[in-house]
């Protein structure tokens, strides 16, 4: 049983300001309050260079109306002050040939929190496995983790590395989702996070997939801790107010099991911590 002072802070969620977001910000804020959240950091999509796939012409992941987003977010921050803390961040997609532009964007906009995400492999979202079907799932994953390392190195202004399992959600089978296969590739990434005071995310959208992804998270979290990593974050990665917050306790429990005593979220680019 948790006491009344137990806090819940979500550092990764999307409103309708994201091209694939369903709910208005206020609906999400109300859902968050109802679910006992003390803090929500919105992280709308900005995927510079994300191609439009067939059948997805209506989506534009590279578009984000930052002015309208900040305006609305600040109104809600004021309206719900005293009930919940609202942060205005971004989920920035990384792409090697566009890193200077992506880096300039995240620096200039004045976000509370910057999430770095590797959604792409060979220029396409990992979701579209046909573009990398010529690689084995494990080859694809090693290559993708290498991209994470190179791209993070080119974008020092980020706070959190999101969903470290993203490619494995879509590529391969359960046997390809064993963290031990990738620990050597991930070691330099985790060391870089630990040395630079960045956070590794536990993504609830990932955990809800179950199976080996859950074990993958436990293993990567332990490896990160062994390499000196202290900062972790929890992201619902919600795109809708429906079912908002489901699975949060699972993420908290996993962090406790892996030896973490607190997790972090970022306001004005500075980490604030929540006890586990
Ligand atoms: Zn993402
Ligand atoms: Zn997201």
Stretches where pLDDT is under 50 for at least 5 consecutive residues are none
- Alpha-beta content class: alpha/beta
> At the fourth CATH level, what is the homologous superfamily?
Metal-dependent hydrolases
Shape: globular
End-to-end distance: 13 Å
CATH architecture: Alpha-Beta Barrel
Residue share in β-strands? 15-25%
Q: Would you count the extended β strands for me?
A: 11
How many domains, as an integer? 1
Topology:
Layout: E1 9-13, H1 25-34, E2 39-46, H2 66-79, E3 85-93, H3 99-108, E4 114-117, E5 120-121, E6 124-125, H4 137-153, E7 160-161, H5 166-170, H6 183-196, E8 199-203, H7 204-207, H8 212-226, E9 232-235, H9 248-257, E10 262-267, E11 270-275
Parallel strand pairs: 1-2, 2-3, 3-4, 4-7, 7-8, 8-9
Antiparallel strand pairs: 5-6, 10-11
Bound molecules: zinc ion (ZN) (2 copies).
One zinc ion binds next to loops.
Describe what is shown at a glance.
With about 280 residues, the protein is of the alpha/beta class. It is about 35% helix and about 20% strand.
Can you tag this structure with a few keywords?
276 residues, TIM Barrel, seven-stranded parallel sheet, two-stranded antiparallel ribbon, binds zinc ion
């Amino acid at each position: 049983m948790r006491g009344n002072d137990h806090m819940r802070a979500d550092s990764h969620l999307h409103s309708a300001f994201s091209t694939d977001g369903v709910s208005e910000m206020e609906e999400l804020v109300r859902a968050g309050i109802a679910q006992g959240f003390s803090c929500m950091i919105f992280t709308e999509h900005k995927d510079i260079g994300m191609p439009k796939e067939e059948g997805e012409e209506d989506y534009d992941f590279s578009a984000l109306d930052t002015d309208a987003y900040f305006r609305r977010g600040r109104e809600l921050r004021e309206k719900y002050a005293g009930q919940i803390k609202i942060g205005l961040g971004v989920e920035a997609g990384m792409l090697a040939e566009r890193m200077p532009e992506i880096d300039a964007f995240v620096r200039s906009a004045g976000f509370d929190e910057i999430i770095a995400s590797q959604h792409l492999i060979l220029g396409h979202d990992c979701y579209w496995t046909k573009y990398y079907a010529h690689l084995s799932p494990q080859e694809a994953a090693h290559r993708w983790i290498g991209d994470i390392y190179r791209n993070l190195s080119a974008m020092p202004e980020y706070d959190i590395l999101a969903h470290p399992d993203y490619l494995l959600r879509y590529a391969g089978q359960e046997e390809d989702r064993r963290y031990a296969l990738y620990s050597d590739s991930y070691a330099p990434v985790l060391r870089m996070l630990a040395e630079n005071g960045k956070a590794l995310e536990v993504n609830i959208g990932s955990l809800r997939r179950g199976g080996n992804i859950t074990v993958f998270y436990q293993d990567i979290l332990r490896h990160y801790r062994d390499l000196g990593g202290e900062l972790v974050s929890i992201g619902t990665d919600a795109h809708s107010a429906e079912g908002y917050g489901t699975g949060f306790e699972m993420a908290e429990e996993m962090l406790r099991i892996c030896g973490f005593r607190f997790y972090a979220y970022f306001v004005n680019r500075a980490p604030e911590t929540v006890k586990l």
